[in-house]
Amino acid sequence: MAAIAIVIVSHSKQLALGVRELAAQMVQGQVSIAVAAGIEDSENPLGTDPIQVYEAIASVFSDDGVLVLMDLGSALLSAEMAIEFLPEAQQEKVYLCEAPLVEGAIAAVVAAAAGRDIHQVMAEARGALLAKATQLGVVTKPLSVVSPITTNIESPTREIRLIVSNRLGLHARPAAQFVATAARFQSQILVRNLTRNTELVRGDSINQVTTLGVRQGHELLITATGSDADEALGALQALFANNFGEAAQSCYSNKEEPALKTGFPSQATGVGLPNPEGEDRVVSQSPPAFHHEVTPANHGELSGIAASSGVAIAPVVRYQPTHITITEYHVNDPDAEWQRLQSAINTARQEIQAVFSQASLQIGDAEAAIFDAQLLFLEDPVLLEAAHQRILDNHINAEAAWQAVVDEVVTSYHTLEDSYLQERVDDVVDVGQRVLRLLAGNAPANLHLESPAILVATDLTPSDTAGLDPTKVLGICTTSGSATSHSAIIARTLGIPAVLGVDAQVLHLADGTMMALDGESGKAWVEPESDILDLLAAKQSAWQTAQQEARATAHQPAITRDGRQVSVFANIGSINDVQVAVASGAEGVGLLRTEFLYLDRTSAPTEEEQLSVYQAIAQVLDHRPLIIRTLDVGGDKPLPYIKVGLREANPFLGWRGIRFCLDRPELFKTQLRAILRASVGHQIKIMLPMIATVTEIRAAKVILGEVQAELNQAGIAFDAAMKVGIMVEVPSAVAIADRLAAEVDFFSIGTNDLSQYVMASDRTNPSVANLVDALHPAVLRMVQQTVQAAHAAGISVGLCGELAADTLATPILLGLGLDELSVNPQSIPGVKQAIARLSIVESEAIVASALQQDSAEHVRELISTSITPPA
Prior knowledge:
globular; 14% strand
């Protein structure tokens, strides 16, 4: 057998196996060929997994070399990441090759079987497509420019224009469907992105279709030349109409202009790929030799905001981003200056797209949507026109004009004084600084550490955080930031422990100073004593063991040691989330946040758009319960297309949730119609947010009844027995829980809002964030009162706040009598495992003591000392 090995990486397992079979037949088994393709997801098996790629490389590794052939997109990213898992000595002998998958694989194995070296094998693979092109008489050009293949001039040519509605445009899966459909027909299919003004490319080429850079809202021109042109275009049009099977309503037309969508999403939810080495790490506890420059809080403990759980122990490395100083000056050629700004923006767009692709692989599509929003910022015509006008009118340089318009956007967000838009400011600043850096000709900031460390900084941008390597950045410690910022969300998804908002003295620590941090408690230690190190190491070891055991039992029911079954549902905000939730063992969805349908657009979603999303999610759940929370915006989460009156001084106490919906009955009715229509054949329930009074429930039920009557009159089917519940998240709802329980079918307690309302503290304000703790006895008593009222009325009660995902709190929640816990998808295995280790009897005993404590800290201490270790 030849020594050089081949690894085939593809989104499609079936394709990869077919290529391997074809290539193997060419050389009759003389070359070792491994496959890393597809993902373990029965609903959407297309994808790549870096761990699978790593295992494939390791299985055929040869000192003579391993050639890795990939299809596109995340396959390249997975391959690059897989190489990093190999020992350094082996990394040097693995070569990634951009050659076409099928032709490249055949050429490579033939060359390898002939005994050629790795560089000759790569050359043969790269030349495979050229040989094919020569044989066909096609002149090759760059991927973005393709000459049409000569066809019979008598063949009819047809064309259509379609608008892409997919949230991520023609990413890997829809692009693959497009190409596969185009390839079924004899006609030549060409496609052009009118929005980006690209050249025509071949519709049967996945690489060329991908290079069109198609995003949501882009308009495509598709032509077909040949005898079956009409059938081909009809099939492609059907793909768009069905939205490629994804969760958004397609909007296609030969004449309509694409709707412009700008802005930034609220806190995204979802999970990314698990880190192959575990989500948190403890490095060697033998500190390297180093000296002190400044040693504030020597051996001291620092308190901050717990932003991402996990333990890290490592030397610190300070990160100080380069500050770009802008000087305004006069320019004689404003048109040239405008071109310079456009060039920087285009490069920034390419960089962000690269970050987006990497983030999709690392943290999942939901979190990566943060960077999709940054791309929209760069395409905002209002912002671009403002910058253009400043350059032309004032004859000033591009840097000054750009900085001015960015500052205006930042200022407009700051004047609204709410946390939701404050998080968006981080993205605006992130994008603004990227463009300024490019204009200044500065190199990108380098956050790639040579050895494992804890990163210490004033703050990190979302781009900074998404680019971190969890194998090198073991922890994050900053002097600013909040647990709800995009950077904190990304850190949690990457599994990097983070403590934010600590004292600024940490910025004076010398690089190499040993630090320990606990992202669960929000504490950090400078040069920790051995007893602290021992405790943290034990906590880390126990956490890793628990994670391994939890994953093994995730799809089993959560049953306590004394036989009580507790439902474990998922909180989701997209179709991608529900797929991950089911794969993680969710027994249903306890909270579908529908806000993602309404944000970042210029008008409210239609009934049909919503219907398609709800049906798609229900279909994935396959008759598992789906609780859909009606629109929860207003106040701190405004909709740009809804005009409001006076600016609210305190939006958390303002016009939001059910108050907003009752004041906008047509908007409310549209959503209710979509939910009711989607209920047929599914176990869907409606949940009303921010209920404070009985009157609000009754008003909402009147509107619901009107919608049901309208559907009945129109002969449209729906589940007439669909259950209606409410969120219990304000103190007034707890106080009258017995009255509210008589009006609805279930309660769901939202401890995130309930905690801040009970404690009169903004959970995003570092000065008082520590007061907002759902384990405070005051909050626990509110939960107890709600559960008792619900059970007295014979209705179920769940909890969907972040507290549900905290396994330290699990005995408290069981002891309080909750019937259901709804958590983020990645927390499901751990929560199920925690339930299985407990009994109701011991949990009730812990609750009885917890309710008598005087602080959340004492409650935590009580839990830690009261749990009986599993047998």
